[in-house]
Each structure stands twice: as structure tokens, then as C-alpha cells.
């Protein structure tokens, strides 16, 4: 599920390929533009209200988290070749489970990782849904996140398009951050499991 989601986000090119000039790379670029576009307008809002402490605090915490997630995505994409080589190495005979006892040794770590993934996936998606629907309960035409746009966001259909852009942007950003973190946790789990298998051997 983790690798599938990374592929869906444009962060894991097919098979042993890397980023080339193809449709998948175009899809990745569009995904990154959507995420960073949403972040850009939020940063512009922070610059605009930097003297108003309340508005600054309201918007800075989520914007900083999104910026860090965007940096994390770029670093992940930059190192995807190393990660794919590591995955190929881990599938080699040296690292395979040899006995039923060894399978039982690594099963608890695998279960913990799966539980962690599902738990964080539920929490992240619940948070995104709540952020997305909360402004709908206000009488004013509020957006999910405060941002400064060069156009009037209260006019229809501009409001709906901007609203959708922010929701899609935060969804893609959160899913990318979640799946990169969980992927790294999986690698750490594999390192621990391999140490157990080495001791058993």
C-alpha cells in the first residue's frame, strides 16, 4: 500500500525507472505544482500579515508543516535511485527469510509497521476531511487555509476552484509526507528484522 500510494502521488516511477521525459514525470510535475501553489499563496498571506500576531499564528503552523513536507518530497525524489537500489538489494537471497522460525521472528515488527501505517493513515485523512469541511459551516465564504490571492476569492466559481485547489493541495502534501515517513519507518523495521535474522543465522 505504501509503494502504491507513492506511485499515485508521482513519487515512485515504475519498475526500475527514474524520472524521464514521459507522462509520469508530467503527472509528478503537476502534483508538485498543485502542492507548492497552495503553499505559495499561504506564504504570501504570512508576509502580508506578519505584524498581526493572531493572524500570523493562525496560519504559520500549517504553512511551515507544508513547506517541510514539500522539502521532504524533493529530497525523496532526489534519492529515489538509491531507495530503488536498496529495495532490489533487500529482495536478494542474502536477506530472505529461510525458516518458519525466522518468519515468526520478523512477524511482530511487520505487524507493528502495518498497524502504524493504518493508524496514521486514518488520523491524517480525518484531519484533512475536517479541515476541508469546517469552512462550509461558516456563513462567510472562508477557505480552509488563510492565503493571499491576487483575485477576489469570494466570487463564484473562483471561490469553489480556490477551495478545491487548497483541499487537493493539502491532501497531496499530507499523503506524500505520511507515506515518505512510513516508508522510512518500514526501512528501519527491516534493518531491525535483518539484525534478528543475522543473529538467528
Automatic annotation (TrEMBL):
**GO BP:** signal transduction
| Highest taxon of source | Eukaryota
Keyword Transmembrane helix assigned to the entry: answer is yes
Q: One GO cellular component term, please give it.
A: plasma membrane
InterPro entries per the UniProt record, alphabetical: 7tm6_olfct_rcpt
In the bilayer, the protein is annotated as:
Multi-pass membrane protein
**Which parts pass through the membrane?**
21-47, 59-77, 117-137, 157-180
Q: What is this protein called?
A: 7tm 6 domain containing protein
Which species does the entry assign this protein to?
A: Asbolus verrucosus
